[in-house]
Amino acid sequence: xxxxxxxxxxxxxxxxxxxxxxxxxxxxxxxxxxxxxxxxxxxxxxxxxxxxxxxxxxxxxxxxxxxxxxxxxxxxxxxxxxxxxxxxxxxxxxxxxxxxxxxxxxxxxxxxxxxxxxxxxxxxxxxxxxxxxxxxxxxxxxxxxxxxxxxxxxxxxxxxxxxxxxxxxxxxxxxxxxxxxxxxxxxxxxxxxxxxxxxxxxxxxxxxxxxxxxxxxxxxxxxxxxxxxxxxxxxxxxxxxxxxxxxxxxxxxxxxxxxxxxxxxxxxxxxxxxxxxx
Length: 278
Hints:
Blueprint: E1 14-18, H1 29-37, E2 42-45, H2 60-72, E3 78-83, H3 85-95, E4 103-109, H4 118-141, H5 147-154, H6 182-188, H7 193-203, H8 208-214, E5 219-224, H9 233-239, E6 243-248, H10 255-258, H11 260-277
Parallel strand pairs: 1-2, 1-3, 3-4, 4-5, 5-6
């Protein structure tokens, strides 16, 4: 056959990375660099209440919108790679009837413990109690105010010099909430326990096994050998239309940062498998 009539090779699969609870897309820096060096387009999203979207409250609809935007920004075939909350979110997104035909696979890490049932509801209730206790303790000591106040301060332009407000103003008004400079607040920010309760509320009642079963694409499960959330991995694997399970020795729940080289090798193999099925 004349070479001019051959079908040109498909471009490498694009990838959307989705982080876990109380972190951000920054956890995927190693993987994004690894894929871009190999010629893939790759982006790492920030879910609501995390990273650059920390002013938003977490909801599954908001998380789906973040994935919709990320997928729309990438060319060609797309794979999702999610860790923990990001893995559950990716599986739920892929299970929807309107999931894009461009989706070719999901790599779900640290999320083979089905969130449907009493354990997640119990953990959510414990987290809600902890959040209330932490908030009350910090209010009593005056160290930190409610997260909504911090979010308002983050909209203030970054200052070149540290900013310190007086502890009280004329008339006794308490200005301790502006004691931290906006720049310092951004650097010190960590998602609060409120994020945990919101996230678990939206996960409770959603079966990740059912989502795997509904997904029309291959699903690879990647767990660290020391991850306590490995329970249920065989159920998830059995539910996958085309599935694979990889357990990385020596790693825990945050498998992509605890064993980045091994995770990257698995990621490369998974993308090759997704492309073959596509």
